[in-house]
């Protein structure tokens, strides 16, 4: 199979297209023929060596979290999928070392959901990582419908998706400068995290998806009756399934900036690193 690989950490030009053996699905896994994938800021961090795998680096490395395509083959112990099923999936990089910037990937069935025929592979590939992260963060607020929720960067990747999902959960989306909100989701970190925390009313809820920037003390004080919660991507079917339903119903539509052939992955990374980037960059695996 063809895959976009890196053989060492470095800049965007470290990618090259290579021919690799097609993976075989293990028990509980599906082999997915990937039609489209997308790039995320975390991919840039891994490629540059700033976000390291849980295990020792295994080169050549295939990056990528998001995938959409069809089921090619089933591993043992799979009975709820069939070859040809249209699916979207998530690979929990960098822990799994199984990337999606390739023609095939073998992934646990627990990280795959079926998508409706009306949902394009391009749309589906733009959703798994940012969508599941945003949904998990909003769910972690544990607030009732009608609550006013602040998202401190509703134009960024995860923030924009959270802003789309919040109304679907019954939340009222507050302006980023609003004070006294019922809950806040921090997607920026650093001083922006503290500003979002300060905007929450005493006894409210606060969640951050950037835990490495959360610092105890300062405005993060127990006296306000707020317990900060950190959320990392759960990468499972429980959060992917509602996203697939919303896509099927036309209630959720990701912002896609451009579709590029997989062999232009270096260009996608350069754009992702450039200031002012908005929208998802989707990689087309059929144009090789």
UniProtKB/TrEMBL annotation:
This protein's superkingdom? Bacteria
Q: Which UniProt keywords apply?
A: NADP
Q: Identify the residues that the record assigns to the Enoyl reductase (ER) domain, covering every copy.
A: 10-283
Q: Which Pfam families match?
A: ADH_N, ADH_zinc_N_2
Report the protein name in the record: Alcohol dehydrogenase
Q: Which organism is it from?
A: Phaeobacter piscinae
- Please name the taxonomic classification of the source: Bacteria, Pseudomonadati, Pseudomonadota, Alphaproteobacteria, Rhodobacterales
């Amino acid at each position: 199979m063809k895959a976009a690989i890196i053989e060492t950490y470095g800049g965007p030009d470290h990618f090259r297209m290579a021919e690799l053996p097609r993976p075989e699905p293990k028990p509980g896994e599906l082999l997915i023929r990937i039609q489209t994938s997308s790039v995320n800021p975390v991919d840039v961090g891994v490629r540059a060596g700033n976000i390291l795998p849980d295990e020792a680096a295994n080169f050549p490395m295939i990056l990528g979290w998001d995938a959409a395509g069809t089921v090619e083959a089933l591993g043992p112990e799979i009975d709820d999928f069939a070859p040809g099923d249209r699916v979207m999936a998530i690979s929990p990089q960098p822990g799994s070392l199984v990337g999606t910037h390739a023609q095939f990937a073998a992934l646990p069935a627990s990280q795959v959901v079926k998508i409706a025929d009306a949902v394009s592979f391009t749309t589906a590939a733009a959703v798994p990582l940012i969508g599941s992260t945003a949904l998990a963060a909003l769910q972690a607020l544990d607030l009732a419908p009608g609550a006013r929720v602040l998202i401190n960067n509703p134009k960024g990747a995860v923030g924009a998706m959270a802003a789309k999902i919040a109304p679907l959960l019954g939340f009222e989306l507050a302006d980023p400068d609003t004070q006294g909100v019922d809950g806040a989701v921090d997607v920026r970190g650093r001083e922006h995290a503290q500003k979002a925390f300060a905007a929450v009313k005493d006894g409210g809820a606060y969640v951050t998806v950037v835990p490495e920037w959360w610092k105890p003390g300062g405005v993060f004080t127990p006296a306000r009756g707020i317990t900060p919660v950190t959320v990392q991507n759960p990468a499972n079917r429980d959060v992917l399934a509602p996203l697939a339903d919303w896509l099927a119903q036309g209630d959720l539509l990701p912002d896609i900036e451009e579709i590029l052939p997989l062999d232009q992955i270096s260009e996608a990374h350069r754009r992702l690193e450039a200031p002012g980037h908005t929208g998802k960059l989707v990689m087309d695996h059929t144009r090789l």
